[in-house]
Write a structure and sequence with these properties.
elongated, Ribosomal Protein L9, domain 2, 39% helix, alpha+beta, three-stranded mixed sheet, two-stranded antiparallel sheet
């Protein structure tokens, strides 16, 4: 007898097992399509928004501190009710100046939204 089948690591490729597998795959494909559609809808919503943040700044619009992806994520949730993991934001360096910054946000492996972040003077 086959070692894998005997120890429950594999199933014999019978008609019943194959139809179960195909049903499972259909379900996974449907879920993946729904996730993609949700990500696209969220992208559309996010690209119409501007996240407003306030910070103290010195001369020339340089900030005394910096704005991090964590602060952007918190502001996005607080003002717009959209919860995004800060690790999905592609912000290689914290924002250190006043004004608008475009921040790419990876919502899905196929969908990246561009979030407009505006840092105003406190």
């Amino acid at each position: 007898e086959n070692f894998l089948i005997k120890n429950g690591y594999a199933v014999e490729a019978s008609n019943a097992a194959l139809s179960t597998l195909s049903a499972q795959k259909k379900k996974e494909d449907k879920l993946a399509a729904e996730e993609l559609a949700e990500a696209k809808a969220l992208k559309e919503k996010m690209e119409k928004l501007t996240v407003e943040l306030k910070a103290k700044s010195g001369e020339g619009g340089r900030l005394f501190g910096s704005i991090t992806s964590k602060q952007i994520a918190q502001a996005l949730e607080k003002t717009h009710g959209i919860k995004i993991d800060k690790r999905k934001m592609d912000l290689p360096e914290a924002i250190r100046a006043l004004g608008h910054t475009k921040v790419p946000v990876k919502l899905h492996h196929e969908v990246t939204a561009t979030l407009d972040v505006h840092v105003g003077e406190e």
